Fold this protein.
Amino acid sequence: MSDLTDDEQQWLEQQSTSVGNEERSIVNDLVVTDLADRLLSVLPPEDQQALLMIDGEDASIKEVAEATGWSESKVKVRAFRARRKLREAMEKLLKHKVGARGS
Amino acid sequence: MKEKHITEILDNASIVNLSESDLSEVHAHVEDCVSCRGAYEAARLSAVVVRSRAQSMIEPSPFFHTRVMAAVREQQAVENVPAMLRLWGSAKALVSSMAVATATLAVLSFALPASPAAPAFDQTASAYSAESVLLGQTNDDQMSYEQVMSTIYDDDEAK
């Protein structure tokens, strides 16, 4: 995955310093959308779908299973794997951000 | 540092959906564990990013609502037309053509004169009617048997 843009870095810093900040703007939305697309691109499409439905839209495991035709255990596994990959990708970005600031 | 890391808890559910007990366990652990602190921060930001992405996906264009409501109102206006009017609209052509055909037949029946062959048929029919035959009535124009015989013999005598 490519490096963070200035806007993305700024957004991440804002999020890191202000917990639960609900302020939204069009620029912020665009930055987050772009960042999300880059992060989600590391996941297979099915994992993306499971993660966006469960964590993004608050769908239950059962609802996702019914919507996709997958078994509930498959939905759980996909969501678990997607969260882990996304978290690891985000950790790499954060480490890179800290490294860039230090240099 | 505690032995059990909390990455599995972070990956089991979105951080915003973690139970109170899981959250307290995570918070207690990240105070001492530097690597898990980074994982926790990454999981928190990931949850924000995923939620924002999902919201941007499902939020429709500002004009979407207006267009949908206009379409609904248009559909309701069509449905509010009375059923008889809608029926008339579809049957108008059929009813009109039937009315024209009926009027044409009426004109042909009442307005045009009768054909000349009809009286001759009536005369013949009256001359040989079943009633006159049964009652033995004769027509005044016809000659009786005696008249016929006298005519024949009168002619012979004259010769």
